[in-house]
Structure formats: structure tokens, C-alpha cells
Prior knowledge:
The chain is built from four helices and six strands.
Amino acid sequence: MRPDHPAESAVLSTKPLRGEGVTVRIRTAVPGDHEFMMAVVPRLRAFGPPPLRPHDALDRAERDTLARALATPADDAVLLVAELDGSPAGVAYAHAATDYFTGELHGHLSIIAVAEAGEGRGVGRALLEAVEGWSAARGHRFITLNVFAGNGRARAVYERAGYGQDTIRYVKELPGAQ
């Protein structure tokens, strides 16, 4: 049975923020986090409109993934919430994936979103480190993630955290196609 209240969830880490007298607390998500997670989803596209995909489709897919992960936790996945001063400030969802080329099992960070109040305050970095720790604890040699090419801020965060480009996906809209 999973706890319903954040105070009863498993705390994975606490990280003091430099110069702020505040600590980021990372814990497993609980049903009481549903409303926050659904509300933070539009932050995933705050950088501007990604190509070829309407906002409502992006939001629906991300909300469906988070709701499913919360309602039916998988053994090979983790759904985390970051708190600042006891309030939710970010969410991350990761799962095990298999490398297409080698067949090697690795971690994959599917979703990471930070509320506006947590932006630039170490919330995203704390979630990223917690997911990396989760993946490493499962014996994964590496972790992957996807980011829209136009999301320069997120790309810079990932690069500062040691991530580098692997494969690059190209897309072309076909004229006259429906």
C-alpha cells in the first residue's frame, strides 16, 4: 500500500540550496501530488512551441504518463517530487529502457518539470541527481533523456550536469500530408 500524504512518502534526498537557507527535498510521489503534477505539465513547453505538435497533444501525453505512473507504479520506474519549504516544486519520471543498438538496460528520464517558483533554485538539478542515483542503484551504466532542440535552457542544464548528445533526430513536415 502506498502512502497518500507526502509526509509518509519515501524521502530520497535533501539538498540545501546555497545562500537561500532552503532545502530541496526529493521524495517519491504520492496520490496527493496528482493536482500539482498535472498543473506543472505546461512548464515542459515553456521554452516556446515545439515543431509539429500542438500544445494540447503534448500536455495530454505528459499528463497521461504522469497519471499512469502515479496510479500504477512499475518496478522498473520512479516518480519523484521535489519540495521547497514543504511545497511541491518539481517532478521527475524515469524508467528502465533498452538501448536499441546494444540491448543494454539503462535509465531513461522521460519527464522532468520544475514549477516557476523553483526555477533557477536547484530543483531541477536535485531531481536530476536523484534520478541518476536511482538508475545507478539499479546497475545501469548510463542514463538517457530527450529534449526539444529549441529548449536551450534545459539543454544547458543537462550539459552542465555532464550529459552529451548521442543520436540526433531530424524531422521534416511533408507538404500535403494529413
